[in-house]
Structures are given as C-alpha cells and as structure tokens.
Amino acid sequence: MPDIQNVGTHLARNTMSWSRRIDAPVERVWEVVTQKEHLDEWYMAAQQIELRLGGKHDWFQDGGVVDEYEPLRVIRFYAPKNRSWQRFSVEPDGGGSVFTLTDRIGDGSHWQDTEWEETEDGWVQLPDERIAVRSPGGRGTHWVGIAAGYHGFVDSLDTHITGNTDGYVSYERLNELYDAWYRVFWGEGGEGWRLTDTD
C-alpha cells in the first residue's frame, strides 16, 4: 500500500476522516473552520452558515442544518435529503490543536450513471473513467477524487493558519496516491470489504 502522509481513515464503508495537528490554539482553529472569510480560503465557499444547533447551511445541494454544535469543539452539517453529513472537530493538543474533518456519504447521494455498468455480477465501474471518479469500493463509498479533495482541504487549513506546506502535495498527486492506495484497500482481501455502513 503506498505511503500517504496523513492518509484518511475509514470509520465505516461510507464514512472517512482526515486529521491534522495544527500549531495553533483551539480558538484560532475554530475561528478559521467556522467563519466564512476563512472557509472561502481553505475549504468550499458557503453563502450561509448559522453557528447554532438547528442553524442552516448551504454546503450541500439542497442545504441542511447544524445538528451538532459545541462552540470551540464540534460542528456537524447534516443534509436530511440524502442523509449525508460533515463534522469538524477541534481538540487541544499541547500548545496546538488537532482538527478532524469527518465525512459521511448518505444513502441518497447522487452518483453519475455514466460511471457504472450493470453486469451479471452486479454494478461495476467502467475501467476507463477518470482517476478522480474511480470508486473501487462501489456506490456509497468515497471515490478517489473526494478522498483526495478532503485530504487537500485539511492540508490547506494547516497552510492557511500556519503557512506549513511540509509534505503536502497537489490535488492531482493526491488522486494518484489515493487511487493506488484504494486498489489495495478495496482490492481482493483488502480491509475495505470488512467495513459496513454507518448512520
């Protein structure tokens, strides 16, 4: 299995997390992961985020709600239509912090029909699809480009706060690394096939 610095962790078949130790206090990391002017720099642009339990957000196509919120510790963005969620957590670690982004792909998430072909053995991904849309774990799992993208977002968070770029690579390189890593993880006898979905 290729070595990927700070590789994502599968918590379940449909849920992954990416963690980084950031050389900044919890208060600074929390500000950067919850304020629009910072999110626009390291993550996805958001027009609306209400920082409260039950608050609205527009990260997902059909919007969603904040269903877990503890200031300076955790915020979770839930999309009820497809049961997806993303969770940001921050924990103190000595003089710094540990940030974790966890992403759950919901059972109602959109999958491009052109990526798959129905065979006698079930649905399989077409072999000539671009690397970023390969999903060797099948529908409902993080495809290569999503894993590489979230990995890159968390790298960008660290860089935005501290200026650190040590060991961080381009999105294209992360796609190549995750593609090779997934071939082992989701390959015959790989760890991925022991996972189940989570709510």
Provide an overview of this structure.
The chain has 199 residues and is α+β, with helices and mostly antiparallel strands. The protein has one domain: Alpha-D-Glucose-1,6-Bisphosphate, Chain A, domain 4, CATH 3.30.530.20. Helices cover 25% and strands 27% of the residues. The protein is built from four helices and nine strands; from the N terminus they run E-E-H-H-E-E-E-E-E-E-E-H-H. It has helices spanning 26-34, 36-42, 144-162, 171-185; strands spanning 9-12, 15-22, 56-57, 64-70, 74-79, 84-93, 96-104, 116-119, 122-125. The chain has a seven-stranded antiparallel β-sheet, with helices on one face. It starts with 8 loop residues before the first strand and ends in a 14-residue tail after the last helix. 26% of the residues are buried.
Feature tags:
199 residues; Alpha-D-Glucose-1,6-Bisphosphate, Chain A, domain 4; seven-stranded antiparallel sheet
Secondary structure topology:
Elements lengths: L8 E4 L2 E8 L3 H9 L1 H7 L13 E2 L6 E7 L3 E6 L4 E10 L2 E9 L11 E4 L2 E4 L18 H19 L8 H15 L14
Antiparallel strand pairs: 1-2, 2-7, 3-4, 4-5, 5-6, 6-7, 8-9
Helix pairs in contact: 1-2, 3-4
